[in-house]
Amino acid sequence: MTVVPVSVTSLKKIKNSVIGNPSAKKQLAQDFILIQTLIGCLSPPHAYHEAHSPQLRSNDDSIRIEAAHVVASLASSEDALSVLLDQDAPHAFLVAVSYLQPTDSVALRSAIIRGLRSLIMAMADIAGPSQWGLKSAKSRIQNKAKDGMSYPFQAESLDIYLPYLTDPSPQIGTSIAQIVAFAVRIPEHRKLLSEWLPLDDRLRESKVTRRGWEKTSVVNANAPSRQGGWLARHLAALLTNRDIKLQEASLWALAALSKDNPAVAIVLGRPDRDQSPLLSNVIPLINSRHADIQLAAAFCATNIARGSTTSSTHPIDESCVRAVINLVNSVISTPSPEKSISHRTKACFILYHLITDDSTLCGIAFDRGCLEKLITIVQEHTPPDNKTEWGEDEAESVSILREAALVAIAAMSLFDNEIQRTVTDQHHFIPTIHSCLFHRHIGVRYAGAQCVRALSRAVIVLRTTIVDSGLGMSIFSIFKKRDEDANVTNAALSAVCNIVIDFSPLRPIYLEQGLMDRLLELLQTSDAALRLNSLWAVKNLLRNSTTETKRSVMSKLGWDRVVKYLQEGPTDVQEQAYNILRNVAETHEGIDLVFKNISIEVLTGHITNAITSSSDDVALQATYLLANIINGNEQQQNQIVSYPQLLINLRTCLAEGKNQVKKPATSCIRQLAHNPRARRAIIDAGITSTLRHLCEWSGSGISPVAVSSPVNVGSPVSCNAGMSITAGSGRGASPGGRNWGTGASATGVGNHTHVPVYAPWNLGSHGHHLHHTLHSATHHSVSGIYQPHSAGGTQQYGAALDDDKEVVQNARAALDWLERGDTFT
């Protein structure tokens, strides 16, 4: 280690040697004394302000400027960043910023704040999640960077640097906006920034709240959420600035702030009484003459529009969709000097964020020709013979572009049979996807697996192309690969969830080749997404399976494990546990298995609590499980109704539950009404009056007169009471018929048959809790590029009418049995 005399000349020499030179940065990172010296140079010279001449102070400022430039350059090196974090560089920069004065030169203020920006952005890139594409490998200092990221997002730190957003110098405002734009990666930081207020405003708001006599409207006028918060308001104001860099940074910052953040997006995307929405000012910028402004505006508009669309009563802005898709098509079409690989990559990801989880937007993008352009991008650099072995010389930027195009293709193909068939039959894209599964870049393998997942939702593709091409076995081999990246494994697992459905030719082959052993391994991991999707695969595996398969699968999975999941863990795990038992109990033999392996006290106790759960998904699946096991023999029914609280909670479902829960709940009562002992328990629980009320009214306004007379249920042989199927989501598809009994769902029939996401045939959940996206919630914390939007698998109107009719029919039939008993025919 050497001690270099600190001077402007020596620091400029060091700066010139490390800029654009990774090896020099790595070498310099080993000189701890020099790093300490550089960080020490950032400290404010308190003594000079009082005792030294302006000339000496100017010389000192020049040293601070050059030191800040060197540290900012070093931050891009992982080795150097590690040393900088060890030496507490973020703290040193924040202290330096806190002592800046308005009288300081723009050069000094700009250099210090730009150094802080470089350091925070470098930490964000290492800590993740990544903004554009999956990282090829986990950094050895990722945990250190994650710890470091907590410091600049503390309220005390935000108080120091965020106010500089309003600095008169565009350079300084740009650096602050870029911190927001490129360092905000996780919801916690997004929330902190959205709610932040300057210290003076917080104190003023606190005084108003303490006095208590002012009107609430006075307090709300200064609330953090007003107009999206202080930060959103000031970023929006900067969009009119003539400085292109500042304008671009403000757009990216607003995009980061509103991403998956309805609290901000709704305010920015919808008009109020005082002003038009910010979105109306962003959309015209998509047609800017500057390519970077265009992309930033498109991403900003996409995040605001999607984040502000929380229900069907607030549809997405059509002009926004049109402008974004037009830009994407322009950028991703034929490459040119003006349309760099980076531009095309961002355009593909922006399209992904626009259309993901929304079947309507997927259809619009398909109709506007996006699919063909995306496929062309992937095939531009794919070996003509589609070999599974790729060369090692491909630039990483090209790999990320391919990844971006593939995830957009997967998102667009997720809901629609026509699009899926276009991918497989018209563009013959299966060999290319197959090849991408073996690419060296993690993101390409991940995106290829997501394409398999999307295409496996089409029944005809699953039963033929995926089997005949060998794609099904390739995705299974990736799923079983123990040293694969967790994101790729999870994507492959989600495809496996679709492929193990009952009509798949690959289900018995997967079972023979160790499917359950691998699922059990994944259930032991710390990755919540892998555990959840493993349960989802088990659920699909049990659907319409033989009694021997049910016995074998449940023996390996463990009945005790499932019982534990019924009450512990997140609600999505509880939902899957109830759905697993529901699929086991889809036959008389399966019901016997459940009663044999789970005590009636434990099972009934859990169901009693779950059918009134605050989670709609848990309540729904628990009620469907009850509807199945009630189809057991008379002795089993008597055991169930011996718990009075169960019937009381079931009455609550009938009176207060949503229609999707009322359907299996009324089916339970209808079936129990055949049992003399159960009839008395139903009457004692006060359910009769609730049934009469259901016969008089239904949620869709159906008149009871319009409902056909109930059919005699007869002996309990169906074992599948209360089951339904969601309406078809294909383009032009009509609602399909009913599938009595299983815990799995299909949408549409014939050529419009679809398999919902992840656990495609899960009838009870309607597919909505899994966030119809290309990833899982835990994955977000790792990669961050594919954010979830819970679009939901909402039923079409015709299916909703069918549900209402069935509720009324079940209620009437149950009343007839309750009132006339065994004399009813």
TrEMBL record:
Gene3D superfamilies recorded: Leucine-rich Repeat Variant
Bias (Gly residues) ranges: 729-740
Chief place where the protein resides: cytoplasm
GO cellular component: a single term: cytoplasm
Keyword Cytoplasm: yes
Superkingdom of origin: Eukaryota
InterPro entries: ARM-like (IPR011989), ARM-type_fold (IPR016024), Armadillo (IPR000225), ARMC8/Vid28 (IPR038739)
SMART domains cross-referenced by the UniProt entry: ARM (SM00185)
Keywords: Cytoplasm, Nucleus, Repeat
Locations listed in the record: Cytoplasm; Nucleus
Keyword Chaperone attached: no
Any GO BP: proteasome-mediated ubiquitin-dependent protein catabolic process
Signal peptide: none
Region (Disordered): 729-748
Listed name of the protein: Uncharacterized protein
Source species: Agaricus bisporus var. burnettii (strain JB137-S8 / ATCC MYA-4627 / FGSC 10392) (White button mushroom)
